Amino acid sequence: MKKKEKTDKKRSLQEEEEEQQLFSLNDKPFKEDEDDDDLSDSVDSVYSGLEDSGSDSEEEEDKDEEEGSDEDDDENDSAADDDDKNDESNKNAEDQSQKKTVKKSKKKEETEEKDVKKENEYEHDSSDEEDIRNTVGNIPMEWYKDFPHIGYDLDGRKIFKPIRNKDELDEFLDKMENPEYWRTVHDKKTASDIVLSDEQIELVNRLQKGQFGDVHFNEHEPMVEFFSNEVMIHPVTNRPADKRSFIPSLIEKEKVSKLVHAIKMGWIKPRRVEDDSKGRFYDLWASEDSSILAKHRMHLPAPKIPLPGHEESYNPPPEYLFTDEEKALWEQQDPSDRKLPFIPNKYSSLRQVPAFSRFIHERFERCLDLYLCPRQRKMRVNVNPEDLIPKLPKPKDLQPFPTTQSLVYRGHSSLVRSISVSPSGQWLASGSDDCSVRLWEVCSSRCMKTIQVGGAVKSVAWNPNPSLCLLAVAVESTVLILSPALADKLVISSSEKFLTGQQEEGPSDGADPVVWSETEGEELNQGIRLKIKHPKVVHQVTWHAKGDYLASVMPEHSSHLQVFIHQVSKRRSQNPFRKSKGLVQCVSFHPIRPYFFVATQRCVRIYNLVKQEMTKKLQANSKWISSIAVHPGGDHVICGSYDCRMSWFDLDLSTKPYKMLRHHKKAVRGVAYHRGYPLFASASDDGSVIVCHGTVYNDLLQNPLIVPVKVLRGHVITHDLGVLDVIFHPTQPWVFSSGADATIRLFT
Amino acid sequence: MGGLQKKKFERGAATNYITRNSARKKLQLSLPDFRRLCILKGVYPHEPKHKKKVNKGSTAPRTFYLLKDIRFLLHEPVVHKFREYKIFVRKLKRAYGKTEWSAVERLKENKPTYKLDHIVKERYPTFIDALRDIDDALCMCFLFSTFARTGKCHVQTIQLCRRLTVEWMNYVITSRALRKVFLSIKGIYYQAEVMGQLITWLVPYQFSHDHPTDVDYRVMATFTELYTTLLGFINFKLYHSLNLVYPPKVHVTMETLSSFLHGCKLFNKLSITGVKLSALSGSLARVVSTEEEEEAKLDQFPAEGEDVEKMEAREKEQKQLEAQKKLFDGLKIFLNREVPRESLAFIIRCFGGQVSWDKSVSIGSTFDVTDETITHQIVDRPNFDKQYINRYYVQPQWVYDCVNAKILLPVEDYFLGVTLPPHLSPFVEEKEGDYVPPEKLRIMALQRGEKPAQEQEEEDDEEEEEDEEEEEGGDDEVDEEEKAEEKNLKKMEEQKSQGKSLQVKVTPGKVRAENPARLEQEEKAEEKRLAIMMMKKKEKYLYDKIMFGKKRKVREANKLAAKRKAHDDAEKTKKKKARK
């Protein structure tokens, strides 16, 4: 900076001098020399950078100024008058003059003067050094080769070339002869040769070596820490503070107001106090209050993970390891079906145990269970199964009942469909598919009589009247009335009389669907007394308790001729129903009162025979009723059904069964009540007869007690048929059963 | 009646439940936040009794929460924190987007945090409640403490988990609460009894995990967040119940200090106490320096009748427990470097034994291999060259089996290179009719103080087998007689049925002695069968189910027994062959 300032000063000085010279304008060669000198001087001063010289020149300048102040004024005027060619120079001159005036006014205050000078220096902006000897500028000098001059000096006069140009020879001679040749430099701008001085050569040498131009410059001077950490008492610059440093900043004001607003609105919060209480633990349960407990009433704690068993051990007992089949099965199974979520494995020592690959999985699944799995309180049924079994009176206390098979009646060759015991209890009649009816003596199991009837016997029924000895047999579409002649002569004769006694020919013979006829010859010898011809196949016959009426069943859909009631003494038949109410399965008379039970597939209808109306309809809750039996008291009915059930109806209670008994595994074929003892039995296709105790109390408020007391087995199941019929002995606690294995068995 | 009639699903069960999605909407939370809230607050779905009613007639599978639960969540302060955090994230994103780094700094400083103390207190109103539910917390913390710093979770979490688990183990050691241990293929199960609560936890084996990709670590981290809080408070309470200083400090003697310091150079990340704690070898500092524990004796109450028996049983149990607590008292056990140090040191110290290991394995070793007073050395390699005479070299399973058997088992079965006896689960309690492995029977015999004579037994077995064969032979003879008789009878019957005239011949009948006991049994069985017939349908169903389960159990037990027998037979034949 300083250097520059000085050069600037120098230049201005030169200019002034030149101006002065201009005014004098006397001797050119001199002037040229001076110029040269000046140039060299200036160059010297520029490159040597000596402060001394600078300061000297300043002083000189000052002196000059002082001396020539008066003249300057005149000069200014004259200059303005003479030539305005160079505005710059003029300006400079003017400035100079102004400076001088200012300087004059503040001569004694040196510091201020310096300041002013500095300001001056700023104004001289001379960053590029103009060539002041030739004003043509930076152009190729060949353009002037045809001219006698080479350019113009500052005053606009031509700078002439030297008269004779040096040619090669001159050059060579010069080189040979001139001892100064090596330090001569050709200046193209002025087309003159300049001989460099010793100092200049040294300067060039120094610059070539890369040293500082100034010899005296000490490049290794200790550095003065100017801006250091130490606080100085004086300011670095003495510049007065700016105005802006005294008035509040507008930008800052805006920023602050923004922040203030944000704080006011709660957008910015003060820096949070560091809270280290997060990881700090204290006695959380110091005061345990039960008030929160109410909230947890609905809480279902998660079940704990089940504890591991032997199979999870790293060294389990050998029986817990999987066999090959088990392993294959485990691999085939779906993961949710597997009993164990892993394969047990055995390692001979602890160091061989690897990491469990699904460990993180299992933990994660547990986590999922904990927060995603719906929970439900399930009441665990923790019952002793023994408690579930109802407490029943011991069968021992309910004796007598049949317990053992004591007799087997063999003789039939095909399945025995039906059996019946004589009211005296001495004889047993059986009808079989081998087209015969056999009469057995109960106690000896001897077959007393075999009657061939020429068709499969569907049903046999002994007349319940003890003073008669008659047997009704259903064979295909006829009902035969037999007189087996197995009783006292008195009884036989009375029964014969009963059959032949009153004969009344019905008025309408042709229209009657049922035909009564007496038998003759061989059949009569066999004991067949009457034939009642029905229009269809008869499936069941049953007697009224008095022994005069006989009911027969011909099940057929949509026919009103399904049931007939015959009066044997008068040889009269009647069809009690005008309409079909379904497929009739079986019928029964009430033992005491004039009621008639008709069992269709689903329900049992009870008709009052006197009033000729239906009194009750019992819903059996089963699919297909197979058989029906009426309690000798007449208030209870049991129905067996093909869907393994037996339903007990209490006629006083409801039309729904009082009890459903599912004792059998297969279809129930027959049911029977004992006439005297509180027993009933059921026969089923599973080959068993189940005897139950069924006490009916006289007290109407007490429900019947039903206890199974014995399961009797003996029949062999043939063609999926087991026991087909069951019947009790009229007086003894014995039960007869007939089966598909062509036998009849007595259990006592 | 006044008022509008309510529509179909506006009352009753339908109003008590809320689906998950609608609950989420009600709380105005995103699904991850809702999930986190549910985890922290312990809200879980409920299975309604009538799903269709609750689901407004639809049968689509939905999860239902109790409406009460969701209402309860509405007022949770943590919900606000979640929202704040959401806002924070949004602001931070915005600041990043605008490259306003000062704003980023400021926001990060004000990052919202939350505490779970109140939730822990709310979920577990009493300390015992908290203890009951600590199983999962322990399992989770032990798992997380084994994680490497792989970015699956925060490093701080891992360190905290490690700290808490070590503190827990130290508590168990000091209170001698450990009861059962089990080496499973999954890891090591421990069961401790703390304040009357049985606490079971599972520690994985010390291997690095290969992290599965189908596991949501955020869920696990949320659980861990809650569990660490819970475990910290529990540890605090437990330490104070034993008059211990919390956070724990270890008593250090001068000689061990140097080794500690040596170790600390290795683990300079953890604090010194942390490292010392994890060594599990020092005793903990107490608030009140009473070294001797007062033995809690059962107070004697005047009792009568049954109470006396009960009291005696209880006293006996207590005595047994005391004995178990001092199982390893006086034993000096040295752990070789290949055995799991932490687990074994934990167990041995829990039962009063002294334990040490090689200095280079871990810090905190208290004595050297060369110590002459060492009684046992735990080794897990096939052979060992330099053996001292006055100590037993046993495999690690010995320690675990001793703990479970509650006695010091004979070391012969556990010597080096010996085939180890099976390791049984101590958690199985066999009821009557269950299959009991013979090893268990043997241990039970040992517990009763009977000396097992194995070889004799084997001989006995052989003899017995022969006897059995003989007996069977005898049975066969009887059977044959019966068969002959039956044949005769059958023949006769056949002849009879064919209608041939029998050779009438009366043979004197044999008197058959009826076994009255058997008869009675049969009668009973019959009675039962008849009674079962009379069961109601509902009860019958239940009864059948129960009986089916029982039968299955029996079947399984039989299967196991058969398998074992087959295995033993195979072994025997192998042995015989080897002998020949």
TrEMBL record, chain A:
Question: What Pfam families does its record include?
Answer: BOP1NT, WD40
Quick one: a GO cellular component term?
preribosome, large subunit precursor
rRNA processing: is it a keyword of this entry? yes
Q: Where in the cell is it found?
A: Nucleus, Nucleolus; Nucleus, Nucleoplasm
Q: Per its UniProt entry, which superkingdom is the organism in?
A: Eukaryota
Q: Which Gene3D superfamilies match?
A: YVTN repeat-like/Quinoprotein amine dehydrogenase
Q: Which UniProt keywords apply?
A: Nucleus, Repeat, Ribosome biogenesis, rRNA processing, WD repeat
An individual GO BP term:
maturation of 5.8S rRNA from tricistronic rRNA transcript (SSU-rRNA, 5.8S rRNA, LSU-rRNA)
Coiled coil (residue ranges): none
Biased composition of type Acidic residues is found at: 32-41, 53-86
Mark out the compositionally biased spans (Basic and acidic residues). 1-14, 87-98, 107-125
Function description: Component of the PeBoW complex, which is required for maturation of 28S and 5.8S ribosomal RNAs and formation of the 60S ribosome.
Q: What is this protein called?
A: Ribosome biogenesis protein BOP1
Q: What is the lineage of its organism?
A: Eukaryota, Metazoa, Chordata, Craniata, Vertebrata
Automatic annotation (TrEMBL), chain B:
Q: Which family does it belong to?
A: Belongs to the pescadillo family.
Region (Disordered) residue spans: 448-524, 553-580
Q: Which Pfam families match?
A: BRCT_2, Pescadillo_N
Q: What does this protein do?
A: Component of the PeBoW complex, which is required for maturation of 28S and 5.8S ribosomal RNAs and formation of the 60S ribosome.
Q: Could you read off the lineage of the organism from its UniProt record?
A: Eukaryota, Metazoa, Chordata, Craniata, Vertebrata
Q: How is this protein annotated for GO cellular component? A: nucleoplasm; PeBoW complex; preribosome, large subunit precursor
Name its species: Nothobranchius furzeri
- Give the encoding gene's name: PES1
Subunit text: Component of the PeBoW complex, composed of BOP1, PES1 and WDR12. Within the PeBoW complex BOP1 interacts directly with PES1 and WDR12. The PeBoW complex also associates with the 66S pre-ribosome. Component of the PeBoW complex, composed of BOP1, PES1 and WDR12. The complex is held together by BOP1, which interacts with PES1 via its N-terminal domain and with WDR12 via a high-affinity interaction between the seven-bladed beta-propeller domains of the 2 proteins. The PeBoW complex associates with the 66S pre-ribosome. The PeBoW complex also associates with DDX27, PES1 interacts directly with DDX27. Interacts with IRS1 and UBTF. May interact with MAP1B.
State a single Gene Ontology molecular function.
ribonucleoprotein complex binding
Question: Mind listing the UniProt keywords for this protein, alphabetically?
Answer: Coiled coil, Nucleus, Ribosome biogenesis, rRNA processing
The UniProt entry's GO biological process terms, in alphabetical order, are: maturation of 5.8S rRNA from tricistronic rRNA transcript (SSU-rRNA, 5.8S rRNA, LSU-rRNA); maturation of LSU-rRNA from tricistronic rRNA transcript (SSU-rRNA, 5.8S rRNA, LSU-rRNA)
Question: Which SUPFAM superfamilies does the entry link to?
Answer: BRCT domain (SSF52113)
Descriptive protein name = Pescadillo homolog
